[in-house]
Amino acid sequence: MRLDERPLVGDARARAVHGRSSGGDVVVLGGDAATDLLESLEPFALAHRAGVGDGHDVSATLRAAADAADAVDTVDTAGRTSGAPLVLVSHDLRISPVALLDVLDGPRDVTAAAVVDGPVTDLRGDGSDETPGGFAPARVDPVSRRITSVGTVRHVASDPTTYAAGILRVAAADRVRVAEVLRAAATSESAREPGMQAFDLALLAVVRDAVVPVVAVPLAHVTVERGHEQRQGAAGSAWQQRLRAASRGNDGVFSTHAIRPLSRRLTAYGLGRGWTPNVVTFASLLLGLAACALAAVDTRWTWVLAAVLLQASLVVDCVDGEIARFTRRYSPLGGWLDAVSDRIKEFTLVAAVAWVAARRGDDLWWFAIVVLALLAARHAEDFAYAMRHRALSTRPLASRPLDVPGDGGAQGARTVVPAAPTGRARVVRDIKQVLHLPIAERYLVMSVGLLVYSPAFLLWALGIASAVAFAWTQVGRLGKAATRRDRFRADHPDPTLPHLVDLAVVPRPTGRGRFAWQVPGLLVAVEAAALLLAAGRDPAAGAAAYAWLAAVCWHVYDNVYRLRETGSGTPHALVRATLGVEGRVVVLALIGGFTDRPAAPLLVGAVLLIVAYAAESARGWRAVIGSAPAGRATDAAVDGSTRQDGSS
């Protein structure tokens, strides 16, 4: 199990171990480590310290280690404040070092455990349950990605969602606390349970202590074995499995089956030639803008070529994220660039199509404004709703005694990891994904509209699809809130919500209301309505109003990603300088009520907003780059697990 396992993917730089953790200590729990396990850990410069015991008597394993006079004991090793992480590994884990890169060489200094999804295979073949060992069921919160429950031979994990793979990386700052937890676990009644696996007990103890959050790091598409069970990965070498895992697993149907197979081929090519995520992002942006320029030319063949370039832009747009995940080179700036470039392409194409319609004598600027407002309102609401749930999911968990078998789940709750959806369940899941209208489906709708060579068809198709997606999410979320099935708690409000709304004078929502997450999208809709009224039936004014709203929506996206990536939103000074939504609505009312030619003032307002938002955004992101830790790459696209719009 070596890092040079062939066939390789990418060049040496793409496959490099960055050594961000500067080494560390490893404790193998439950027995003597196999040679292949130690070889898997070797690239990460870990000092090996094998645990004591045969994996069947955890009490003996942990106590013998604690009483040992030499330096190989588990508890003292954990308690050393060496400034390096501690890695706890199950002795029966078999895995390629390539699969461990995200756990042991990732840029985030957090306590994390590797997890794998099913299905898992019993390698014994006879279904016997006499031999202990294998993957432990675990429950992972879908929003915070924190492990909230672990099962063992004695303990139940209610509603488990995945399996603990058998490796736990403890951040240097958490080592002392973890040592205390392990010391208590060694003397617990659970430690004397027949068949108890040392690693399972250690992970359970840390999770139930609840002081040290344990983040789940999924090992997707890689082959992992533990004890008598195996989770088979994708076909090919470990590096080919890593390339497969670099594709997002929660994309929409069109992206999964049409776009990602193409993007992975291009990603493999780029990884061998030193491509960086940000360069790929700019290439995708240029392709998208070229498609917009061709659409503005207004001939059938330029529209066909525009449709092709738009899909090519989407393929390339997936590559930046795949390169970032493959090489672990992701940053807040990269995530922002990736997301904002997608918005620029969408906004510009809608504008180009509306421009062509106006030249043909059909004023569709009003409908372009409606489409833009739908896209931005939905994205703002998605983010606000997600952050509301994150505030609920990241609240401190209550610790639970180690010797209590249950984890506090509902009586009769499921205790096995559910199987992957098949047949009808998969079809239902795919339909739901399409209804959510992720970016690949949106680009598909726009490309079909370009092939039809009809501005009205493109805008109506995109508008109806966006309205259906907006209604789909609204009905579900409002239904849960109205019936109080949304786990809402007023004492755990979303701290980002006050910074997400662009209000200068009117009090901002605190997030303590059950429906407060609706406010950001509602404000976008209010400003869009004011723009429509101010522009009236003047096509030139409609174009200026679209530019105004595009500036506002770009600012919404910019603010969303700054909040998500850096934790800080737009300074209130900029909100006051741009009058806030309430001030701009008053200005629009004056323009519509007292000006016969609203195009000029609307255009002036749009230019002023663009300059103000662009200047402040550049200042804010320059500060982020300047404060980036030394050695941390700023080229990247953010991991897609939290992306609300389904982009790369």
Description of the molecule:
- With 648 residues, the chain is an alpha+beta fold.
- The chain folds into 2 domains: 12-243, Spore Coat Polysaccharide Biosynthesis Protein SpsA, Chain A, CATH 3.90.550; 253-642, Four Helix Bundle (Hemerythrin (Met), subunit A).
- It is 53% helix and 8% strand.
- It contains 22 helices and 12 strands.
- The chain has helices spanning 12-15, 35-41, 58-67, 74-79, 101-104, 175-186, 198-209, 238-246, 253-271, 277-297, 300-327, 332-359, 365-393, 424-436, 439-452, 455-482, 497-500, 519-535, 539-566, 572-577, 580-594, 599-626, and strands spanning 24-29, 46-50, 86-90, 93-95, 112-116, 121-122, 136-140, 147-150, 162-170, 215-218, 224-226, 229-231.
- Strands 1, 2, 3, 5, 7, 8, 9 and 10 form an 8-stranded mixed β-sheet that branches.
- A hairpin with a 2-residue loop joins strand 11 and strand 12.
- Helix 3 packs across helix 6 (175-186) and helix 8 crosses helix 11.
CATH topology of the largest domain, anyone? Four Helix Bundle (Hemerythrin (Met), subunit A)
In the CATH classification, which architecture of the largest domain applies?
A: Up-down Bundle
The portion of residues assigned to helices is 40-55%
Structural class: alpha+beta
Number of strands: 12
CATH class of the largest domain: Mainly Alpha
**Quaternary organisation:** single chain
Percentage of β-strand residues: 5-15%
- Name the poorly predicted regions: 52-72, 629-647
For the record, the count of structural domains works out to 2
Radius of gyration: 27 Å
The biggest beta sheet is recorded as:
8 strands, mixed
Q: Going by CATH, what is the homologous superfamily of the largest domain? A: CDP-alcohol phosphotransferase transmembrane (TM) domain
Number of helices: 22
| Alpha carbon gap, first and last residue | 31 Å
What value does the average pLDDT take? 86
Shape: globular
